[in-house]
């Protein structure tokens, strides 16, 4: 690099071939930005009066660029970044014509387009591997996680945002290093070398390695501990996990918990995420505690060019004084090469918080506030709780929720309604605290395609403007209707084929009608009473009527007559038959016959024969 007062040599290769010396001489500036929370990027700026650099270097969109630094004291160069060209620019001003090449590491592929899909019975690390593989990124640096999740949803998110959210949920570090995805536990600041004798590349001393510095220790936002709360609907109990506020990103002469105690701070309780298991709550509490504590120590500085520094590496800083001397984990590192300053490295420490514009303004995209429509796809709940799975076609044709609990009127232990929507029913869905993996079905919806039941009457009285019909109808048409119209007022219960009906007509009577195309059976363990207080009781048999009882039958006409009529009338007692009244008449229209099997006795004060 021309006129660069540096002790390290910059190497640039394009598609595997080193840039020629004449092109290296045209380099006016190089920036390599390494960030814990974003894809790493580079910028190459060439002085290019003849606009020939791109053609001579064979730099095109998608070309692989490798940037490395060979420090004089080291035997081999150290790679800063392997990336892909994503933008080409020309700048023309009073100082000349410049060609600018920009690009990102392979992580940028995961920011292109959004996906909606689900991952079932998987650990977080399993999901990370799948996402990396479909982006053609190697997966050699993935630390395993142990909790198996029933379902994790990627809800219209980029792969990068999805993986970042997963990393945040367990407190992991996400990056692409030399074409390999790293999903690892954060580097502990305590691993930085001790001492500042200059023999350690990651031991920095103010006045020697550090050229400029701003560092701060703050109690703002610090609390003694965090608590994550949720609800386990399976066991019907609250879920709670607590973690002390402590960080591994800074090991200095102050501690976050001690700073919090200075002001009597209360614990920070988090309730906006619907954690349903103790394991997920504990992981979230630890990650949150680290994220909160990591903001207590901040650092921004410029040091002499050092290719050994990268985002996530631990460094030891000295000669700053208390409480700032100590060890830090770098959040962002920027390597800068220019003709004025040579090679410098900018460093910053911000803990697990993303201070970039994207991080401050964007979101994971997985939250779903408000209600949405869906279509039921599965009702065979393995736990028999009346849950359903719902497809969300507005998000993706194949995206379906986990098992969703259905709102039921009066639901409780061994009580309440049980009305489960059918497969292909359109339903209204809400999400617990906005979490896409915690859905609830609020109810079904009618539409121009899915019309209401063809009722006995209109649902709204056109004249009065009041609801005149309420109904409950099953898939096969079994119905219960509550009618309150002038023409029909009452309750109607019937089967879908109309063969069984019970009506309670309050408008035309009132009258109760029981109809069956088959039999009607009335059965009671005790007694059956049929009473008409002011009218008659009529029993009509289309063929015959049979009355039977084990102990006896009594017919009582009260103050009226008892009439028994038939083509033939037979009165028979197996032991005895008695006919008794103040006056008894036996009369035959044609003939009368009285027969005694063994004897016949006629007895009275006066007996007349003929």
TrEMBL record:
SUPFAM superfamilies, per the entry: gp5 N-terminal domain-like, Phage tail proteins
Occurrences of domain Gp5/Type VI secretion system Vgr protein OB-fold (ranges): 372-446
Pfam families: Phage_base_V, Phage_GPD
NCBIfam families to which the protein is assigned, alphabetical: VgrG_rel
Name of protein: Type IV secretion protein Rhs
Organism: Kribbella albertanoniae
